Amino acid sequence: MATEVKNRWGYSTEPFGEPLLYSARNGTANWMKDPPGQIYQKGSTQFSVKMYADNTNDDWASVVIPVNELPVDHLAKAMWTYWMTNAESGGVNMVIWIHDPTDFSKRAEVTQLMGLVSKDAGFNVETLDLTVTELFYYGENISGSGLTAGTNYTWKQFREDALFKDWDIYRITFDVGWLGASVQEDIWLTEININGQQIPLKPSGDTYTNTIAVQKTMIADTKAAGDIYSENATTGTDWDFELGGNGDITVATIMHDAAITERFVLYLFGQEPTSETDDNKANTSPITADATFFLGAIQFDAMRYIQTGDAWTIATTSTAGGLPIHHENYTVYGILVGQDGATTVAEALTITMTSEMKT
After folding, report:
1. Which end of the chain is less crowded, N or C, counting CB atoms within 10 A of the terminal residue's CB?
2. What is the mean pLDDT of residues 109-126?
C-alpha cells in the first residue's frame, strides 16, 4: 500500500526548505551560475555558492537550510562538497540549530569544529559521521542535558542525550568564517545532501542580485588624460568581475584614497580583451579584435571627496552612465580609463559592481 506523504511547506525537499544565503562584515556568499572548470561538474542545478571570509573581524558567510521541525534523532547523515582555492585552517562546517518544540526559548546551536573538516586546496568531501567526536554546543535556557556546553561530542551522543533527543532541528547551516585572523579565500559550495536527500542549490524565483568588489593596488604616479588604470606598468591586467551568470549590471562604484576628480570610463567585455592593459599607458580599447564580445562602457561622473575622505563616484540606471548593461558571462572583464588624468597613490582602487541576475 502506498504511503501518503504530506508536504507541509510545498517544497519538494520537505522537511528541508530552499537554501538561503547570508554573510556579515567582510564575508560574502553569492550564487554562481555555470561556474568554470571542475566546479561546473558538480551539483544538480549548475549553480554553486561562492563563499569568502576575510576574518579580520569574525567575518562569516553561510548557506542556510530551513528545517521544518525535524526530530534530532531523525538526522542520520549528511554529505556536502566544496572546492577551495587554497588549503586553509578550516573548511565548510555544518551547524545544526535545535530547540525545544514546546518552548522556543530553549535552544542551542551544535557546531562541527571547522578545523576538523576537510580543508585542502581543490575539491573536498565532508560528512556528518555519527561516531566522530567533532561537535560542541552553546545555547540558552538549557537544563537537564548530560552534555557540557563547549565540550566536543559525537552526533550520536546528542541524539541519545536525555534532553536533546526530544528536541527538533529548525535549521541547518553550512558556514565559513569565525577564524580570527585567518583568511578563507574563495570557496565554492557545490552539493548538499541531508538524510540521503539532495538539496538543490539555486536561488528562489526568477531573479537574484550579485554584488562583486574588485581591488587593485595602484602605482603612485601621475596619469595623463586617456591613460589606463591598472596594477602594473608592464604586466597590468584587466579587471575581472565574477558576476556568475547572465544578468544586467545596474550599479557600479569606484573608490580610491586620493584627492582626485577623475572621470572614469569602464569598458566591459565578455572575454578577456586583447587591448592595452598596462598602467599609465594610452588606452586602445575597444579595438576591432574585441568587437564580438564588447558589452559596452560605464561612464562615471567626476570623483568627489570631502576633507580627507576617499574619492568616490557612482553610476546607476538613474544616471547618464550607460547602465544597465547586459551580460551573458560568468566573468565580465573591464578596462578602466581616465578621461582627464590624475595622480594616484599606492593604495587600493576598488570597483564594486551589482548585477540583477536571471536564473
Report:
1. N
2. 95
* Spans of all domains in the chain: 20-204, 208-358
Three-class DSSP category at 192: strand
Pairing of β 294-299 and β 331-338 = unpaired
- Pairwise CA distance, residues 303 & 264, whole Å: 8
Set of cell numbers at residue 217: 593596488
Q: What is the pLDDT of residues 177-208, one digit of tens each?
A: 887 666 788 999 999 999 999 999 999 889 99
Same fold, 20-204 and 208-358: yes
Domain 20-204 indexed as CATH 2.60.120: yes
Residue 275 has pLDDT above 70, yes or no: yes
Inter-residue contact 66 to 20 (CB < 8 Å)? yes
Interval 29-82: pLDDT, tens: 999 987 777 888 889 999 999 999 886 767 899 999 999 999 999 999 999 999
The helix/strand/coil state of 164 is helix
For the whole model, what pTM was predicted?
0.88
Write down the pLDDT at residue 5: 36
CA distances from 174 to 62, 93, 135, 345 (A): 6, 5, 14, 40
The answer to whether 218 touches 345, Cβ cutoff 8 Å, is yes
Residues 311 and 304: beta-carbon distance below 8 Å: yes
- Give 179's contacts (C-beta < 8 A, 6+ positions apart): 53, 55, 89, 90, 114
What grid cell was written down for 359? 536564473
Note every long-range contact of 98-104, with CB atoms under 8 Å and residues 24 or more positions apart, other chains counting: 98/72, 98/164, 98/167, 98/168, 98/169, 98/170, 99/167, 99/168, 99/170, 100/166, 100/167, 101/69, 101/166, 101/167, 101/168, 103/141
CATH 3.10.20 assigned to domain 208-358? The reply is: no
- Of the chain, the end-to-end C-alpha distance in Å amounts to 39
- At residue 138, the 3 state secondary structure works out as strand
- Nearest residue to 199 (alpha-carbon basis) of 332, 14, 72, 32: 14
